[in-house]
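Standup notes
- DV: blocked on the single-chain target, sequence here:
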Amino acid sequence: MTEAAHPFILGLTGSIAMGKSTVAAMFAEVGVPLFDADAQVRAMQGPGGALVDEIEAMFPGSTGPEGVNRGVLGAIVFGDRDKLARLEALIHPAVARQREAFLRAHESAPFVLFDIPLLFEKTGTQGIDAVIVVSAPANVQRARALAREGMTPEKLADILALQLPDAAKRARADYVIDTGGTLDKTRQQVETLVEKLRADLNAAR
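- DV (later): unblocked, structure below
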């Protein structure tokens, strides 16, 4: 790793119900600074959030005392590419500003983790130094997904159709975390990878 103004950036991604959020939390537990883009969006859309007024102006009736009503907003933009593009054009720059602030706050850390659900599908790998893909067998993924409230086989099929297949993600990953086993086995993989990354970065200095 060459000298840079920011830490080594890890991008964490994975398809629906692969356990990405669980793995992200495990990285945070061992001291890796975590930037969760979805959490940032929820905060900016929550009560008093930075984007609430702009979203209301763009989509009247989509907000209330608790901030953005995600169900209402989702119904407005679902299936309408123009409206979705307008919403994304508002959200993505705001998230980018939060990300830059996060990097400045953690500029002395050896590496940081960006939790990016649609890294391959939308965000892209520009600015990411290495990609970690969270993966599990298809039957495990399906069982987890269908156990979620409101999930149906049809909805799951629609979501999967919009996501890069798991095999393709694994093929493009620098590292893969297998969540098909126990939580302890997953945690062990995370700890081993963190140790490897620390050693590799120290050796490259």
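- Follow-up: The two ends are 7 Å apart (CA to CA).
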